[in-house]
Amino acid sequence: MIKFLKICKKKPYVFLKEKYNEAIIAGQKNIEAISISSYSQELKQVDSRYVNLKFITDEEFIFFTNYNSPKALSFQSHNQIAALLYWPSVNLQIRMKANIKRTSNQFNQEYFINRSKEKNALAISSNQSKPIGSFTQIKEKYNKAFKCSDLNKCPEYWGGFSFTPFEIEFWEGNEYRLNKRNFYKKNNNDWDHCILEP
Questions:
Q1: 130 and 167 housed in the same domain
Q2: Theoretical Cys-Cys bridge with 178: which of 13, 14, 135, 174, CB 3.0 to 4.6 Å?
Q3: What CATH number should be reported for the domain holding residue 77?
Q4: How far is C-alpha 42 from the chain's CA centre?
């Protein structure tokens, strides 16, 4: 599930909330799964991965990760991303281009303290995406963190990222590939709208 903290009244966000509600009613699983694509200036490479989208507040989309992870480092080197949601229950893709930044330490702490101890122990114990000798070592680090760490204190190396789209496309699949594509592009504080051909 995605939590809407503040509902934005601008057209693409109103449409997004309508489609989200339709997908929930249709029984969409993993509705919070969102693909994030980034570019690393250092490696000169693009990369994609799924994360869990936790919040939408006004025009911002928020997820959490380890700040030392490859994706976080790529966001630091190049603050534009592409994001993709796909909800097959309503045959809808939502494609976005956006600028990304860290959330505040206060926001991270407030979120962290309300998570389960099990999730927090993993956030504390994991050097995300770094090589390790075995899965047994991962479990040992996790168990040590669960027993010995303050599981209410958000570590400095873990927290949220907020991205704000400047382009949003809603791709709705139809028979014979007569797909409906509503495209929105931000123009100062407004959103220009057009229909794209399939």
A1: no
A2: 174
A3: 2.30.110.10
A4: 23
